[in-house]
């Protein structure tokens, strides 16, 4: 079958390179420009990781969330690493997200859009270009796509070949995700096994009746012989911060159906708090692609910034196009978020609002770990729901850093993780993540909030 091929408008193609004339924060200083050009040329020949048609479906799902008819669950590592892209670890993360989604679907009585911070979350913005340990100072670790985590001068040299490895690791991760979510692993009737360990913990008594209700609902469906496809497979999208321009540009492709550019490194791409300057490269670049995109908004965000971001990134007010990911901090969200949501509501834009209750709640423990208190995370989520309720807007989703493994990185939760546990089970190479149990607990809290929304 020969479908008509629509070529890109030359002005659109030229526009994609406009970012080259703008300042771009948080880019590596590659030591060898010729080697970067070579890798970019190679990446440009490799197949897309995601397809334009999938990206379009996601945009319509996010439009539902923005109008209160669906809820977005986005989660995964702060920084994915090459060594941890194993079958077991990927399965655990997908499983955790699917289990959380079951709880949320029940609480919200509406579809939950499942999205991993997965299959591409390899580049990290850093608050300092350098890291000092003792009397040694080296370039900071910027994510496996750029340099190595080991604290040696060799490891910390940016190596463009890592971009090819990141592409290949994303491809194998995505392949496994597609197999898990299309091949029966996502079956609701087995995913609900979550119940066992979680509900038996006395600290979770508060959630017992909700857990039992979900269990009964699933058993009821099974007893009725419900066997529709939706129970067995699920849509699952991948997302990452669109940070590293030398990777994103060659993976941006022209959709032959429409002639429009799509970033094919992931379905949903967001701009971080540190790279959302209005006249810089990232905002310009993402304004030119068709993917649904996100922007992180921290506690210093002004109303004018938000209105201008809407003008730049979603001038046509297209449903599902733009998501604001607020990360204010538990102590600030009730003061800082209302003015933003009210102004956007009154401007008649309708972006999707989701909460990232992780990045505004960082602490350093007495024994020197980067951590977050589970109670602060929960409190920011509650604040997010309160603010949207008062403004009459939709609290449309959550964005969390989590792992399916039994790590100890965030303090508290029903297993009462304390500072001493961090010394034993801290694995993150970047920010602290919720572990499996803490993730479920968060899902129950959000489900409670959604039920009374
Ligand atoms: C992140 O999501 O890991 C991150 C760095 O977030 P932010 O841009 O909100 O600081
Ligand atoms: Mn992070």
Structural summary, described in words:
The chain is an alpha/beta fold and 453 residues long. It has two domains: 393 residues, TIM Barrel (Alpha-Beta Barrel), CATH 3.20.20; 46 residues, no CATH class. It is 41% helix and 13% strand. An eight-stranded parallel sheet has the order 11-10-9-8-5-2-1-14, with helices on both faces. A two-stranded antiparallel sheet has the order 3-4. Strands 6-7 form a two-stranded antiparallel sheet. Helix 4 links the parallel strand 1 and strand 2. Helix 2 runs parallel beside helix 5, helix 4 packs parallel to helix 16 and helix 13 runs parallel beside helix 14. The longest helix has 22 residues. The mean pLDDT is 94. The structure holds phosphoenolpyruvate (PEP) and manganese (II) ion. The site of phosphoenolpyruvate has 10 residues, from loops.
Layout of helices and strands, plus pairs?
Layout: H1 10-16, H2 33-45, H3 52-66, E1 71-76, H4 87-108, E2 112-116, E3 130-133, E4 136-139, H5 161-182, H6 188-191, H7 195-199, H8 208-223, H9 229-232, E5 237-241, H10 245-248, E6 252-254, E7 261-263, E8 268-271, H11 281-286, E9 293-297, H12 303-313, E10 322-326, H13 333-346, E11 352-355, E12 362-364, E13 370-372, H14 374-391, E14 397-401, H15 419-425, H16 436-451
Parallel strand pairs: 1-2, 1-14, 2-5, 5-8, 8-9, 9-10, 10-11
Antiparallel strand pairs: 3-4, 6-7, 12-13
Helix pairs in contact: 2-5, 4-5, 4-16, 13-14, 14-16
This protein binds phosphoenolpyruvate and manganese (II) ion.
Manganese (II) ion is lined by residues 78, 359, 401, 430-431.
């Amino acid at each position: 079958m020969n479908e008509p091929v629509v070529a890109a408008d030359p002005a659109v193609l030229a526009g994609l390179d406009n970012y080259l004339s703008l300042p771009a924060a948080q880019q590596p200083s590659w030591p060898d420009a010729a080697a970067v050009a070579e890798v970019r040329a190679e990446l440009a020949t490799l197949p897309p990781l995601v397809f334009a048609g999938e990206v379009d479906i996601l945009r319509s799902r996010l439009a539902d969330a923005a109008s209160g008819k669906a809820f977005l669950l986005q989660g995964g590592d702060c920084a994915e690493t090459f060594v941890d892209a194993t079958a077991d670890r990927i399965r655990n993360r997908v499983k955790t997200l699917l289990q959380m989604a079951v709880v949320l679907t029940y609480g919200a009585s509406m579809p939950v859009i499942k999205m991993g911070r997965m299959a591409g979350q390899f580049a990290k913005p850093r608050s300092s270009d350098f890291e000092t340990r003792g009397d040694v100072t080296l370039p900071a670790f910027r994510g496996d796509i750029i340099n190595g985590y080991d604290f040696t001068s060799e490891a910390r040299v940016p190596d463009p070949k890592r971009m090819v490895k990141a592409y290949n690791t994303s491809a194998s991760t995505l392949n496994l995700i597609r197999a898990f979510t299309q091949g029966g692993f996502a079956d609701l009737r087995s995913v609900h096994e979550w119940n066992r360990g979680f509900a038996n913990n006395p600290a979770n008594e508060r959630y017992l009746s909700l857990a039992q209700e979900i269990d009964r609902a699933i058993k009821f469906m099974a007893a009725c012989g419900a066997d529709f496809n939706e129970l067995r497979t699920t849509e699952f999208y991948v997302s990452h911060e669109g940070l590293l321009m030398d990777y994103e540009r060659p993976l941006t492709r022209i959709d032959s159906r429409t002639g429009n550019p799509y970033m094919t490194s992931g379905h949903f791409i967001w701009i971080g708090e540190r790279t959302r300057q209005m006249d810089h490269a990232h905002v310009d670049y993402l304004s030119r692609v068709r993917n649904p995109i996100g922007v992180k908004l921290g506690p210093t965000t002004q109303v004018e910034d938000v209105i201008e971001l809407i003008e730049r990134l979603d001038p046509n007010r297209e449903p599902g196009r733009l998501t604001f990911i607020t990360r204010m901090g538990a102590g600030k969200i009730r003061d800082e978020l209302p003015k933003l949501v009210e102004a956007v509501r009154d401007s008649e834009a309708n972006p999707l609002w989701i909460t990232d209750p992780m990045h505004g709640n960082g602490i350093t423990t007495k024994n020197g770990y980067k951590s977050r208190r589970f109670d602060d995370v929960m409190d920011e989520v509650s604040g997010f729901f309160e603010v949207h309720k008062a403004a009459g807007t939709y609290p449309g989703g959550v964005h969390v850093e989590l792992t399916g493994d039994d790590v100890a990185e965030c303090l508290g939760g029903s297993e009462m993780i304390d500072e001493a546990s961090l010394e034993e089970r801290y694995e993150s190479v970047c920010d602290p993540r919720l572990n499996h149990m803490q993730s479920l607990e968060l899902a129950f809290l959000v489900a409670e909030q959604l039920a009374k929304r």
